[in-house]
Amino acid sequence: MGRTFTWHAGLALGFGAVLIALGLWGPRAGWLVVAGFAVALPVSAAAVLRGVWSGVDRATLWASFRCLPKAVRVGCAGLVLAGVLVTAPGFVNLGDLSDAQEGPGGYSALDTRTKERVRISRERYEEVRVAEQRGFLAVPGTLLAVSGTLVLALGEWNGVGPAGRTSGVGRTRAAENGRSAT
After folding, report:
1. Cα-based angle 46, 72, 3 (whole degrees, multiple of 5)
2. Is the per-residue pLDDT at 144 higher than 70?
3. Other Cβ atoms closer than 10 A to 168
4. Do the strands 106-111 and 97-103 form a parallel or antiparallel pair, or are they unpaired?
5. Cα gap 37→21, rounded to integer Å
6. From CA 138, how far away is CA 85, in angstroms rounded?
7. For the chain, how many helices (H) and strands (E)?
8. What is the pTM of this model?
């Protein structure tokens, strides 16, 4: 695997792990979400462009992923799964209150059981806001984890093999065994 693939994937997976961990245990999201997307969008766009330019199909990419060492596969899959699990509560409200708002009469939130707005204390308002924002911090982290995994699989497919093959031609075990990727 080429050095640029390793650096690209390492950057994506490292920042992704940090953002997912912050989404789980971190502080209020606010500016961190913006900073996370500022890193995630260019890194992910570069990963997608690498995939498009390589011309590899999904079956070959999957075979390349399976050729990665088991620890790397488990780490990548675990990171993507953790990102999805941390992100999910931000989109699916698992509590009884959501959409906390500050108005002229105090604080209110939507009670998901009755679908009506109820008045809440400032402390409860802060708890609901933090719970809503926390999951969204893991969105760029999950995007980075998927991008890093894609780059590792592309690097395995496009890398120089142990027998000194040049990059790009039939790097996966499926291709070496004569099986068609289609």
Report:
1. 45
2. yes
3. 13
4. antiparallel
5. 15
6. 9
7. 6, 3
8. 0.72
Query: What does the buried/exposed string (b/e) look like for 76-89 if buried means 16 or more CB atoms within 10 Å of the residue's CB?
Result: beebbebbeebbeb
Q: What span, in angstroms and rounded, lies between the C-alpha atoms of 115 and 111?
A: 5
Predicted local confidence at residue 175, as pLDDT: 52
d(CA 128, CA 120): 10
Residue 62: burial class (beta carbons within 10 Å; 0-12, 13-18, 19+): middle
Please, what's the largest Cα pairwise distance for the chain? 73
Q: Is residue 166 very low, low, confident or very high in pLDDT (cuts 50, 70, 90)?
A: very low
Q: Lay out the sheet containing 116-120: strands in order across.
A: 97-103, 106-111, 116-120
Amino acid at 4: T
User: Can you say whether the dihedral through the CA atoms of 17, 19, 22, 23 is positive or negative?
Assistant: negative
